[in-house]
Amino acid sequence: MAALYTILVLFLAVFVAGFILLVMGAINFTFSNSEIPPGVCQPVKLRIIHVILICTAVVGKILEKLGICSQLSYVRHMQGVRNVGADQKLFIKDLWFEKVPVRIYQPKAPSASQRRGVLFFHGGGWVFGSLDTYEKLCRSLARESESVVVSVGYRLAPEHKYPAAYEDCLNATIHFLRNAEHYGVDPARVSVCGDSAGGNLAAAVSQTLAGRSDLPRLRAQILIYPGLQALDFNLPSYQQNRGVPLLFRERAAFFALQYLNGDASNLDDVLEGSHIPIDIKLNYRKWVSPDNIPEKFKARGYKPHVLLDCTTEVFEAVKGFCEPTLCPLLAEDAVIQQLPESFILTCEYDVLRDDGLLYKKRLEDNGVRVTWYHLEDGFHGILNIFNSDWLSFSSGK
């Protein structure tokens, strides 16, 4: 018995020591590989969140090595763990729109008229995120705006590559537009909304539906720090915020490749800008260029990047990055001109900031009304943790 007790104590000691080393390693990683500029709101809290994310990833890798589960499935599971209970102000129900899982949030209070509708596409780099992950945010959107919110559980990469996520969001939106009145929604007051990768999907869906005469016109597109192009990962915001949590420059390119084809072998080429032929880059330079970024956003040490050519082999692997349904910033003016009123949120300390700024300019140049809000002390991901109790940020709220 004493021997068994000794073994248990030793096992516990090893486990605790291992966990401490894990946490210390994560803390060391965040300090050596990340940079939190002085202007970021609540920097200590942001570091804590980053440490938690790194620890989760490391534990997932350990479990994968032990053959228990994949790192990807573990991280997804941990991010999706939520216990929020019933909501006194909302009817919440899981449904299927065509073959796409959705969760619908309907205010319980009676309404004298048909309500507004919001299709919400979650973020997570097309790889992470779920209906559960965004439960609190969607509840808040439905309650505060007194709208019917439909959260779309689109298929994730790399298991389901482009255009799976886009097609799911498009099909769910079309279904809702055709059946909006069944849910007490005015078909003329339906908007699409998304953050990060979800903002990308919202923009792509808006463009696809812009010319459809057989469906009600979307009321608006709401793009929250959206990722809208994969041609240039050396724009000012990518250089300035390359190591700012919660989205590093390298991870942004990695996620884009995971969504495109599930293959990150060309990551270095994408980061260097040697994945798209120069003639194609020059063709899109009128839309994707540091020249279109206001000078005040280049103040933090931006250095112009030299144009590099690429091999045919690399371009063949990533040429999908030139498709507007994957990179909405590349859509033709004729499509942009038909888009609905738009809201764009950007954060100063976010690698995707300039994607939003470039799209804002494109929309305005084509006569689309744009409301732009810029969080001077914001960082990528600040919104989807706005309601996470003590880990929330005032700017996100």
From TrEMBL:
The keyword tRNA processing does not apply. InterPro entries: AB_hydrolase_3, AB_hydrolase_fold, Arylacetamide_deacetylase, GDXG_lipolytic_enzyme. Keywords: Hydrolase. The active site is at 196, 350, 380. This is ADCL4 protein. One of its GO terms (cellular component) is membrane. Gene3D superfamilies: alpha/beta hydrolase. It holds the Pfam family Abhydrolase_3. It comes from Alectura lathami. GO terms for molecular function: carboxylic ester hydrolase activity. Residues 118-267, 319-383 form the Alpha/beta hydrolase fold-3 domain. Belongs to the 'GDXG' lipolytic enzyme family.
